[in-house]
Every structure is written in C-alpha cells, then in structure tokens.
From TrEMBL:
<protein>
    <submittedName>
        <fullName>GNAT family N-acetyltransferase</fullName>
    </submittedName>
</protein>
<dbReference type="InterPro" id="IPR000182">
    <property type="entry name" value="GNAT_dom"/>
</dbReference>
<dbReference type="InterPro" id="IPR016181">
    <property type="entry name" value="Acyl_CoA_acyltransferase"/>
</dbReference>
<feature type="domain" description="N-acetyltransferase">
    <location>
        <begin position="22"/>
        <end position="162"/>
    </location>
</feature>
<dbReference type="Pfam" id="PF00583">
    <property type="entry name" value="Acetyltransf_1"/>
</dbReference>
Length: 166
C-alpha cells in the first residue's frame, strides 16, 4: 500500500478532514467524556470553521494521509511551537487501522522536524485515552508533564504532555 501525505489548503480538503474526524472523535471520546462533551470538542477543534481558524490564525498545518489515494486519516501540526513541533492531531479512520499509517505518519513528521531543524515533537493526550498513550510510547514518546485545561462550557481536559526526541 502506498501511503502519501497531502498538505491541506483547499476547502474540499478541510471538509474531508472534518468528515474523517467526527466518527473517530466519537469512538475515542464518547466513552471517556460523553457524547455532549465530544460534540462540543468537535465543534471547537475539528469542525470546518475550527480547522479554517487553526490554519489561518493559529499556525496549524494539516496533512491528509492517503492510502493508495484514499483519504485514510490526517495529522495536524504546529511547527516551532515552544521551539518544538507540536503534534496536535493524528487520527486514522477505522477502516485503515492495521495498515501502518501511524508509523508512516511519524516518519513523515520526523522528516518535517529535521527540515525545520526541530529536535523534539510533543503532544497532549487525554489521561484516559490508554490506547493512544500506548501507541505514542511505542513510537518513543515519554511523559514530560501533565496539564488540566478548562476549554469552556464546564469542560476540562486532563492530559499528559508527551515528547519524542528527533
């Protein structure tokens, strides 16, 4: 299978990212936070307007992951945040699990870091998202801190901050 990465710049690509994100976020976060909180998070972070805002004013760069030309997932990055690469999002659609997309994504991100002369990647992950934590640790991430963030409407994110040396 050929896995490629396509930088998201067009409205149709943004819509694809939002379409891929919604079921993944519900499958991941409904059991952790409940449906209402997940809907709120999607609206704040993965809706079409939220992605536009991130791209236009928050320094984000999105890439669609294509598996043999089909949109299979996406990554969202903020280069040079705190002198590192911030990995905000890495999601793979269910039908593409087990095909090596996370491995390909981390290889791609490491190449971007090297091109940008960044020696670390960091991310936040919900403390109760045990599967994601194990995946990140498998790829060399380690815990450096924890943070609780109030994002509004009574919703609080309780996360670990993980980092990987490049």
């Amino acid at each position: 299978m050929n896995i490629t990465f396509e930088r998201v710049t067009e409205p149709a690509q943004i819509e694809t990212v939002a379409r891929i994100a919604e079921p993944i976020w519900h499958a991941t976060y409904d059991p952790i936070n409940g449906v209402d909180s997940t809907n709120y998070m999607i609206e704040q972070f993965q809706s079409v307007p939220a992605i536009h805002r991130q791209l236009e004013s928050e320094g984000y760069v999105y890439y669609l992951m294509l598996a043999s030309g089909k949109a299979a997932g996406f990554i969202g990055l903020v280069p040079h945040k705190e002198g590192k690469m911030f990995l905000s999002k890495l999601y793979v659609a269910d039908e593409f699990h087990g095909m090596g997309l996370p491995h390909a994504a981390f290889d791609f991100i490491v190449k971007l870091c090297r091109a940008e002369k960044l020696d670390k990647i960091y991310l936040t992950v919900n403390k109760r998202n045990h599967h994601a934590i194990e995946v990140y640790k498998h790829f060399g991430f380690y815990e450096i801190d924890a943070v609780v963030t109030d994002i509004g409407c009574g919703f609080v994110m309780d996360d670990y901050i993980l980092q990987k040396d490049v």
